[in-house]
Specification:
Chain lengths: 502, 373
């Protein structure tokens, strides 16, 4: 039986909050209840009750949504799947397939799959992200260049849908059963068609036996524009050329281009050979050597003094934290940080314009705006994720990219919103306003010669100001997704600001 | 639900003859304005159309004189309350989000000029609103979201400005007609005690909704004929009989309404009318003795006989009315067609309709509201 947490329950104050402290933007937009589900049947019953009551359901597994997709639901019900975190084969069953409950975090999934079967998911890069939203949005991470996206490996999705009469039913979707819905669930992102309760995998890749990790620090105090350009060019050129070779696919690397206010930039790498060992580190050595001329350091500089307001009470510095958010309770500091994100898939190395704009904004100081928790993360991409045979099996159309950019800025208080949002919007708009972007799509990484749009798991509400925003996230697959939406959710029960529109 | 009582399309046409017969219609109807009360006289009329909202002053003889045109995005429904005009914008996107909106305008009491007070977004997915109604206490507006398959409640501030959406009731449902793939709330009206009566074209159902503290909940349901598509509804002045126009099967039905319990009673009667396309309009004469309807193929006039039964009277042929409105003085029936507003005088004695005359020409009029003394 699902657990209903309403406003008069002391847990509600914590459980109703979104991880991103910006949501809900107005308290009146918030939910009126959280329904903690323990099983598929629980979820079915709870969802039916919500539908019968004329409420709108939104869904949370890990709660990492960058925008307000589950948090903005005035007086609605939040279906919380975080307790449905099973990982592995069905106990007491002949079924040999692997199941990952929608509420399982990636960290738990990695650990359980490793311990139980010596297997892994291709992944994610944040271990507290929940499988529910992550996998249906594509899902990539540390070994995705080697193995592909997680959605590429999914062979079944158990999903609760609501038919035209409002009846909830569990569908076991595969490539043979409700194949259109199954394909849509492999890349469309969460909150579109129903409540995914289980992901099913016929097989999974082996966990690497070992990996080499490396980190290179580039203090801003020693940074010049020339060095900055060299770092970005070396990284981009590698993944546009040598990084295409299969023997390099076990290399995952990130440029952590922190704003100058943070004191440093960093290039991190994780590597294993295609056989899951590190017996030969030639590829990694070769990659790291590209940055030797930029004289990286292995030691972090002292952090700069932050001017962000701390939660201080009385004469001593103290921070008020809900019990469920504490480390002891395994919490995630729900709602304690405000953030804004953007994303881009890149098909080629950086242009001179792009490097100039990035340098300009990463060194831009805005009076009264603390950008010390602001970063552009440049992830390596490509490899197995670019297998063209997955284009028709999934709706993830970005199969020609070599890098994936995640723009992030974090702050503490609502009165800092405007400064941070202005910074990230102006950077992004200028970055994609150049002769290399066609006139009709200025300001966006519209799919074409240089870009492949944006990642739906890193949604950005700013993009809906462009009439063509669906093409940014879904390319030419949007019409297909609209057909699936009409078929399986005719009453648009599942919706949010960037859900599939019909 | 009871079976229709035999007024099929052919029978209807045989009786009515499809002609307006105002002078020939002899039976007298008893309604007259109450002694000692001033007969309401139209002063200002507002017509929502393709180009926005046209404001008119209305002369004693019923002529419309255009005063103003203001931009408004697809003003599909209007209601006036306490000197304010509320307008539902039948759009599928507002502020880049999938939602419609509602506007509040101040009406200048002397000139009738409109001034926008504010425009409030509907709920996420609240696209293509079709109808709206103002609560008897004036503090809420309820909106039927045809595209969004839901109802919204917006609060109304003391100054008449619209507040935020305070309540959302999400509907599900479908029917056998091609236009019934999902729920399509199409009409809302309030009863005398502040409950909402609602028609869902997509789900073939009527609902009684309770409105408490800005939140809507379902108090009762009444299913109607599958595939009929209820799209317009009106309560009689006593609030005890509910008349429903069904857009998809060309019918009208009447129900008793238990105002005390907030319950729609069994269907008393269903009649079929000439229909063209999927539209239906209804208007009640303020006397409560006449009902006018249109399903896109002429205007039908109905005498409301004992126990609320509808008896056909001569109507007006050839008018493709999308919306009907009877002036508060009961002297005129206005019909919105594709290109004009037509006025038909209502005979004070017989309630028969005179030949239509054009009082306003505009593109695609879809909604009307009148401020009358």
């Amino acid at each position: 039986m699902a657990i209903l947490v309403t406003r008069d329950d002391v847990r509600f104050a914590n459980l109703h909050r979104a991880r991103n402290g910006r949501w809900p933007a107005n308290p009146a937009d918030g939910i009126s209840s959280v329904v903690l589900c323990l099983s598929s049947e629980d979820t079915r019953e709870a969802l039916q009750r919500v539908i019968n009551a004329g409420q709108r359901p939104t869904i949370r597994s890990g709660g990492h949504c960058y925008e307000d997709f589950y948090a903005n639901n005035p007086n609605g019900a939040l279906i919380d799947l975080s307790l449905m975190n099973h990982v592995g084969k069905l106990p007491g069953s002949d079924d040999t397939r692997y199941r990952v409950g929608a509420g399982a975090t990636l960290g738990k999934t990695y650990q359980d799959l490793y311990k139980l079967y010596n297997l892994t998911l291709p992944g994610g890069t944040c271990d507290s992200v929940g499988a529910g939203g992550h996998i249906t949005g594509g899902g990539y991470g540390f070994v995705s260049r080697l193995y592909g996206t997680t959605a590429d490996w999914v062979t079944g999705v158990d999903i609760l849908t609501v038919d035209s009469k409002g009846e909830v039913a569990l569908r076991a979707c595969t490539a043979k059963q409700d194949a259109d819905l199954f394909r849509a669930c492999r890349g469309a992102g969460g909150g579109n068609f129903g409540v995914i309760v289980d992901y099913i995998f016929d097989k999974l890749p082996p966990a690497p036996q070992e990996v080499m990790v490396s980190s290179m620090i580039f203090p801003w105090a020693e940074m010049t524009k020339e060095k900055f350009s060299k770092i970005f060019d070396a990284f981009g050129n590698y993944f546009a050329t040598r990084g295409q070779d299969r023997e390099t696919w076990g290399l995952f690397s990130v440029i952590e281009a922190n704003h100058q206010a943070s004191g440093f930039m960093r290039v991190s790498a994780q590597f294993c050979n295609p056989d899951g060992t590190c017996k030969d580190t030639k590829v990694l050595d070769e990659f790291l050597a590209l940055f030797d001329a930029c004289k990286p350091s292995a030691i972090l500089p002292a952090p700069p003094v932050s001017n962000s307001a701390a939660n201080s009470f009385g004469p001593h510095k103290m921070t008020r934290v809900a019990w469920a958010d504490t480390g002891a309770a395994g919490g995630g500091h729900r709602g304690s940080t405000r953030a804004k994100y953007k994303s881009t898939y890149m098909k080629n190395n950086y242009t001179a314009h792009e490097i100039n704009v990035l340098y300009k904004h990463l060194t831009r100081m805005m009076p009264g705006v603390d950008l010390s928790h602001t970063v552009l993360e440049v992830d390596s991409y490509g490899g197995a994720m670019n297998r063209k045979e997955m284009l028709d099996a999934t709706v993830a159309f970005q199969r020609s990219s070599i890098m994936k950019l995640q723009f992030q800025t974090y702050w503490a208080n609502a009165d800092e919103d405007q400064g941070h949002i202005t910074w990230i919007q102006e950077l992004y708009k200028e970055l994609y306003s150049s002769p290399e972007v066609d006139a009709a799509h200025q300001g966006t990484p519209y799919p074409g010669g240089n870009y492949q749009g944006c990642y739906i798991n890193w949604p950005d509400l700013d993009m809906i100001d462009y009439a063509y925003w669906p093409q940014l996230y879904y390319g030419q697959n949007y019409q297909f997704l609209q057909q699936v939406k009409k078929k399986y959710d005719p009453n648009n029960v599942f919706h949010h600001a960037m859900s599939i529109r019909t | 639900m009871k079976q229709p009582i035999g007024w099929d399309r052919r029978r209807f046409l045989q009786i009515v003859g499809g002609a307006w017969l105002a002078g020939a219609f002899a039976s007298r109807l008893g309604w007259a304005p109450s002694p000692g009360t001033a007969t309401p006289t139209p002063r200002f009329a507002y017509i929502g159309g393709e180009c926005g909202i046209d404001g008119y002053s209305v002369a004693e003889d019923g002529r419309f004189m255009k005063q103003q045109t203001i931009p408004s995005a697809n003003p599909v429904a209007m209601a006036i309350n306490d000197g304010n005009l509320y307008v539902a914008n039948g759009v599928s996107e507002y502020g880049s989000l999938p939602r419609g909106s509602v506007e509040a305008y101040a009406i200048d009491a002397a000139t009738g000029q409109l001034e926008l007070k504010n425009r409030a977004p509907l709920s996420l997915s609240g696209v293509l609103p079709r109808d709206l109604a103002v609560a008897p206490d004036g503090r809420s507006v309820v909106v039927a979201l045809h595209g969004g398959g839901a109802y919204n409640v917006l609060s109304v501030h003391e100054d008449g400005r619209l507040g935020r959406v305070s309540g959302i009731l999400k509907e599900t449902g479908s029917g056998p007609h091609a236009l019934q793939a999902s729920a399509h709330p199409a009409a809302v009206t309030f009863d005398r005690v502040g409950r909402v009566l609602a028609a869902d074209l997509g789900g073939d159902k009527l609902s009684v909704l309770s409105l408490n503290n800005g939140v809507l909940t379902v108090a009762g349901r009444r299913e109607v004929a599958a595939g009929s598509g209820p799209s317009s509804l009106v309560l009689d002045p006593q609030g005890t009989r509910l008349y429903v126009a069904h857009a998809l099967n060309g019918s009208l039905s009447s129900f008793g309404y238990d105002a005390a319990a907030g319950r729609i009673l069994d269907c008393k009667q269903t009649v079929w009318v000439p229909a063209a396309g999927e539209m239906a309009a209804l208007a009640m004469h303020p006397s409560g003795e006449m009902l006018y309807s249109s399903h896109g193929d002429g205007i039908q006039a109905w005498k409301i006989a004992a126990k609320g039964f509808l008896e056909p009277l001569p109507g007006v042929e050839g008018v493709r009315a999308k919306r009907l409105h009877v002036t508060a003085d009961g002297k005129s029936l206005l019909a919105l067609t594709g290109v004009a507003v037509l006025r038909m005088k209502v005979d004070a004695a017989t309630r028969g309709l005179a030949a239509p005359v054009t009082v306003a020409s505009l593109s695609m009029p879809v909604s009307i509201a009148m401020l009358e003394r």
